[in-house]
Amino acid sequence: ILVDQTLDSKKDRVSYEDIGGLKEEVKKVRELVELPLTRPDLFRKLGIEPPKGILLYGPPGTGKTLIARAVASDSRAYFIAINGPEIMNKYYGESEARLREIFEEAKKNSPAIIFIDELDAVAPKRSEVVGDVEKRVVAQLLSLMDGLKSRGDVIVIGASNMPELLDPALRRPGRFDREIFIGVPGTQGREEILKIHTRGMNLTPDVNLRKIAEVTHGYTGADLAQLCKEAGIRALERYMDCRETGDVTVTKEDFERALKAIEPSALREMIVEI
Ligand code: ATP
């Protein structure tokens, strides 16, 4: 089964406090998604159509999935996450049926959010794909979205690193008609992300998260999460090696060593391209 989960699975519950930076972006998503899910009556009374789909686009590891999960938790909506490539490969020949099932499940459990990660894999430009399967799956997704009544009780959030590859029909009104860019964080955002990922860590006073934020230009949220984890591992190794007794603490030096090991993913991609 794909990563289906309701709010009952605490493990994956995400709140806005778990998202660093992205205040404006989160605000926009909340306005577009939360209100229709929680107060459909307002839209009805005003005669405004709530959005059926929104698209989050930008580089990988910047928090698109986090935002979708946080919005679902906060609006107490049923959450179904699917992954584009997975639905195309794993269910080869059954992708359309699987999509129909997902929409059914969402409707049955509404208010609901369907999150489609790597949407470009499910809905590439039909003019450019050779395979019949892709064309049929795009058409199926379009018809399922058109079939969602404009009640706003099921909203599809799509995520893509390459929105230019998406079939243009998907970006028309009534489909994914709102697009929000989720970019690589700036210094302030990086500091917030570092605070989040060191929340449970015992840091020595010489660890200055602001300074680390200043030297991690180009690091995404995912890179920073990895950096903190790496620093934690270094601390653990030190602790084990020295057979220390007291508390295990993470020091400035652990972070310095972690910084040497974890490079920003933007840089990693560049190296691959060269
Ligand atoms: P992809 O396009 O690869 O699916 P994504 O944009 O959906 O990437 P996420 O899955 O949300 O990225 O992020 C991966 C992990 O990186 C998160 O689980 C979290 O630990 C960390 N992370 C990313 N962005 C942030 C952020 N803004 N604040 C805090 N943590 C973040």
Automatic annotation (TrEMBL):
Keywords: ATP-binding, Nucleotide-binding. The keyword Nucleotide-binding applies. It comes from the Bacteria. Residues 50-186 form the AAA+ ATPase domain. GO terms for molecular function: ATP binding; ATP hydrolysis activity. Belongs to the AAA ATPase family. This is Transitional endoplasmic reticulum ATPase. The chain holds residues 161 to 434 of 684 of the full protein.
